[in-house]
Write a structure and sequence with these properties.
The protein is mainly alpha-helical. It is built from four helices and no strands. Keywords: Nucleus.
Amino acid sequence: MPKIRTSRTKQPPEGYEEIEGILEDYAKKMRDAENEPHEGKRKTESLWPIMRISHTRSRYIYDLYYEQEAISKQLYDWLLKEGYADGNLIAKWKKPGYEKLCCLRCIQARDMNFQGSTCICRVPKGQLKAGTVVECTHCGCRGCSSDS
């Protein structure tokens, strides 16, 4: 979530005005997801909408800078510094095999049931049994393998 702006923060770089409306829409969706009631959901399920919004906002900024080349390096660095996008997740997206990664927890071996493994959503759909429903327990992803 973006840091709270105070009078001491530097003004955003040139080009921010063009994407400000979209980033505000993401902030509104994030507030709605945070305030959404979570009765009847599992503990981890209540965080899934927040993680999805964070992922899509980071992907939007990634696409603007790396795919479309629509924003400057200075604006991109400022957005990362201000917390509009997850810099560590974007760094993984640039590596082969991680282009569709949903969250960093899915590749951390320490959070998994079996030592040294990754999340079920990282397994290509062709290697799973037919009819197997894949759903990540961390973020609700239904498959972020580059092969799926």
